Amino acid sequence: MTKKIFLLLFFFFIPGICNGQSRVFDCLNREELPLKEAKAIISLVQDEYSKTKGVEGTFSQDSFNAALEMSEVAVGRFYFSKPSKMKWLYEAPKKQTFLLNEGTIWLYQEEENQVLIDSFDKIFVSDLPVSFLMGLGDLKKDFEVQSGCRTPDGNVIELKPSAEVSSQLAAFKLLVREASYFPAGASIKDAGGNTTSLLFSDVNVKQSFEDNLFELKFPEGVDIQDRRKKNGR
């Protein structure tokens, strides 16, 4: 499975309705943030988060599929534990669980009564902006600060991925509130014009999680599709 397909899997498997939260990241007619200040903010974000072992919170995800010209929205909870575990519990409009644990992807789709399993090596994970939240990426090294602006929701900073990071990413923006310097949101646009925005709330820094949090539990009789076997892994 190619990297582009993984991008679509991660950001577009939740159907929903149109949402306008992507406008939060629009810097049009906003006060410009001096480049030096924008770079300083990114350094603080990286430095502060590097001290963090884990984080949990709620999220709202708004995705625009350019090919279908359709927007989708979903809400739920997320959990990150460095260096290689994350869990997204989608609560609406469909209950689904996306789990990454030690290089293996688990996607449990409750309504479809199926579980998809595949490998997700760290080389690919480091290509995604979300890898920063897992402690696998470095904002200062992997991205170049392009511009920034002040908005009622916080500082929006646009970053350009280095050629070594990914050719699939066209744009990456972070929403940062100075009260915590933890990203309050992120907007990601790929080379195909697909855009996904994430807004985080009720964020709590954690020193550790129970191990079973990153274990996927599902009822008997679920259709399990293990793509690792097809790929010879």
UniProtKB/TrEMBL annotation:
Which controlled-vocabulary keywords does the entry list? Answer: Lipoprotein
Coiled coil region boundaries? none
Give the signal peptide range.
none
Q: Which InterPro entries match?
A: LolA/LolB/LppX, OM_lipoprot_carrier_LolA-like
- UniProt xrefs under Pfam families: LolA (PF03548)
Keyword hit for Lipoprotein: yes
This one is known as Outer membrane lipoprotein carrier protein LolA
Q: Which organism is it from?
A: SAR324 cluster bacterium
Q: What lineage, starting at the top, does this entry show?
A: Bacteria, Deltaproteobacteria, SAR324 cluster
